[in-house]
Amino acid sequence: MISTIIFIICFICLWLFVALYPPSHKILRKRKTYNTFLITSILSPIITLLSYDKNDEVYSKNIFWGSFFFIIFILLYKYFDNYIIKKYERNLILAIKFNEFWHDDESDKQTSIELLFQILLLGIPIFYILLSNYLVMNLT
């Protein structure tokens, strides 16, 4: 149960928040905040493994592999941000171009490679969860 709560909190607080309001990723630019999220993402699979339930084996396996979602997101974000820093000498920009509720001036400066990174940043962790759930359900 604890692992499910951790997974839901990580999913809602980071991925969904960045998907709904992309400029919220700016909090990850601060080293202290990023390190806090990184430590939390590393602890998530450990806590999930410690709370493994033998009675509900398939569900526990799904949650265990799903707990890596957070660390994948954090590491991808850092990799993409470092790439943009080296190429453009500025941080990664996630845009709100297709959102009519909010406007951010920084979003107008987004390049096509950053748009690709934004799509990958939101898509790869979800693809990972779907793939891991498929493999756990069909191989166990």
Task: Describe the fold and architecture.
The chain has five helices and no strands. It has one domain (2-139). It has helices at 2-20, 31-50, 57-66, 68-88, 112-139. The two termini are 21 Å apart. The protein is mainly alpha-helical and 140 residues long. The radius of gyration is 16 Å and the shape is elongated. The model has no long low-confidence stretch (mean pLDDT 80).
How would you summarize what this structure contains?
The chain is mostly helical and 140 residues long. The protein has helices at residues 2-20, 31-50, 57-66, 68-88, 112-139.
Question: Strands, helices and their partners?
Answer:
Layout lengths: L1 H19 L10 H20 L6 H10 L1 H21 L23 H28 L1
Helix pairs in contact: 1-2, 2-4, 3-5, 4-5
SSE topology string:
HHHHH
Which class of secondary structure composition applies to the elements?
Answer: mainly alpha
Instruction: Classify the helix fraction into a percent range.
Output: over 70%
The low-confidence parts are none
Overall number of structural domains:
1
Oligomeric state of this protein: single chain
Beta-strand proportion:
under 5%
Average residue-wise pLDDT: 80
State the major sheet: none
From the N-terminal CA to the C-terminal CA, the straight-line distance is 21 Å
Contiguous helical run count: 5
Tell me how many strands there are.
0
- The shape is elongated
Radius of gyration: 16 Å
